[in-house]
Each structure stands twice: as C-alpha cells, then as structure tokens.
Amino acid sequence: MAKEFACTHEIVTAAHRAWSGSTWDYVAGAALTETTLRRNRYALDSLAFLPRILRDVSTIDMSATVFGQKLRIPVIVAPMGSMDQMCRDGAKAAARAIARFGTMQTVSSVAGHALEDIAAASDGPKIFQLYIRGDMDWIKAHLDRAKKAGYTGFMLTVDGPYYGLRERQLIHRWSLPSVTDPTRHIQASVTWETFAQIREYWGGHTVIKGVATAADARLAVDHGASAICVSNHGGRELDHGRGAIDILPEIVAAVARQADVWVDGGFVRGTDVVKALCLGASCVGIGRLAAWGLGADGEDGLVRTLELMEAEIFNTMGLIGATNVAALDPEYLTRVTPMGPTHETSAFRHLGDDPLR
Description:
Elements: H1 8-18, H2 21-28, H3 35-45, E1 47-49, E2 64-66, E3 69-71, E4 75-77, H4 90-101, E5 104-108, H5 115-120, E6 126-130, H6 136-149, E7 153-157, H7 167-170, H8 177-180, H9 192-202, E8 205-211, H10 214-222, E9 227-230, H11 244-255, E10 260-264, H12 270-278, E11 283-286, H13 288-320, E12 333-335
Parallel strand pairs: 4-5, 4-11, 5-6, 6-7, 7-8, 8-9, 9-10, 10-11
Antiparallel strand pairs: 1-12, 2-3
Helix pairs in contact: 1-13, 4-13, 6-9, 10-11, 12-13
C-alpha cells in the first residue's frame, strides 16, 4: 500500500482516515490558540528561494553526518510520546522504518515501549530522550539502561516544565498527564545543574532540546552540550511563541560552531528542510510528519514518507543550484509575505484551506 502514495498529501489523508479523532487531535493539535503552531508554518512560508542557474547539478549529495553516523538525508525523526496510538508496534515500527531508510531515531522515554525493546527492533542509530520523573539515582538508572542498549546519544527536553493546555483535547475531556502522573511535577525542578550532572555521567554526545533564545544557547555551550535543538515543541507547550525557523539564525550565531545546531517545529516538506539547512542547521527533526506516515501504513508508511521527503529535498537542491548540503547558505533565501492561511496541514495545498478535523 505505502508504495502507492504518490505524494505526502495522500499520506496525511490516509492517517486522518485511519485514526480516531482523539489520536488526530493529539498529533495535529497544539496549545491553547495554537498560535505557536501556526507561526511555525508562517515563518517557513515567509522565506522564498533565490535559485542560481547554469550550475552542474547532475549529481547531488544529500547525506549528512550526525554524531559520527552517516545519514542518507539531514533529517532525523523527533521523539514522540504515545506512539502505540499511532500504529501497531508504535516506536518499534518507527525504529525498523528509520533503519530501513537510513537515518536516525530519537526515542522518547514516553514512547510507549521500553527503551530496550525499541533499541532491539533495529540496528539503526538512536538517541535516547528523557523526561525526568525522579531523582538523580532514577536518572542514572535510565542512562545506564540506554548505554547498555547501545544508544548513540542522550537528549534532554527542556521546554516542558509544565504540560501545555491543549484545548482540542480538553474539549473532549482529556485528562492532563500532570493530573494523572504524580511524578510529572519533577520536570519543573530541572536546572542547568541537573544537565551538568547528566552530561558528566553520560559521558558521550548530549543534546539539549527546546532552546528558543540565544542566551540559553550560549549557556548550553558553556555547559558542554554537543548539540542544541532549536524547538518550540511544535507549539504543543507554550502558546504565542516564535516560529522555530525565525529563532534558528540567532542560535546559530550565538553557538558560533561550538556545538551542532538542530531544529524542529513544523517541518513537513523538503523545501522546509532546505530552508533550515540554508540558515545553518546541521539536521532537521520531523515529528507530526513521521506520525502521519506511521498512521498511514505503519512501518512502510514511514519509509515512504521519508522517501518522499528525500525526493523533495533532492528536487529543491537541484533547482536552486546546490550540489551538497555544505553548499547551502543564507544567500539562497529572501524574505517574502506568506500566501494564504497557515495551520498544521496548510503545507499540503490540495487538502484545502481549512485544517483537517
């Protein structure tokens, strides 16, 4: 079935048909007015390409290297919770798909399967992402498990000390995890000192995910982060935040090549990825798009989603005159006024002007 998807529009439609309304709202929705989510799309649509012509683009290299791992494209799958709701086998299906395609998975501690089971599902490179629900001994126990299971790196998500108020779900009387999980409040006490202790104990590649200011990017470098992931959690936590790609150039400048800079938040097309690479990102994380691929046809659906994104990246690079990722820079971009509405599915023009419900 998955090979029959000719474009990403069809994948999004298939996921929408396959899921219950509550699952769709969980994946597609965001906090309160969903302004941050819409700003992610608006910011991406505010950039247009400046193509260069008469260059030999008969060969294009889209590969990238992240933490010593060569990836087929500079796109990784972002950590996602409750993946067992998205398709059969959830995070394990994702692990198999990501390894088959040839990129990297970041595995959430609330993905729905044990970190060991996800690691065993494929031999592809993986980063373990942790939401903190205990003291340092609790954290060290999880780090030990991740090391033993062979994870390439560790990621600490820092932009969710409190759970976002997601009204799409609240309207249907969904209960906040902070209400049902008695340990959820511990996340609010995490500090730079906590990160320093984690980094020292882990001893390998560490990522801070959820950086939204240059000041915090500099602190992350000072505290030894290997990579900084510019992110607003896809708009799912803080409402009225800035678009992720608008923040990216400031973070790149603040980091000054002292750490890798990643970005996620609303990236659903190959053109989105190329824009981020032009502005200095070393790789781009996809969350909702990966979830839609899983919803459309499980493991095969995610493989096909990544293949379609690869085709879009290839096509975009060829048409703007860039033969490899290193050649991409801000000179390929200019600011414009976006056209039309912006929402979680507005990048898929043939689905219509209104968001799917």
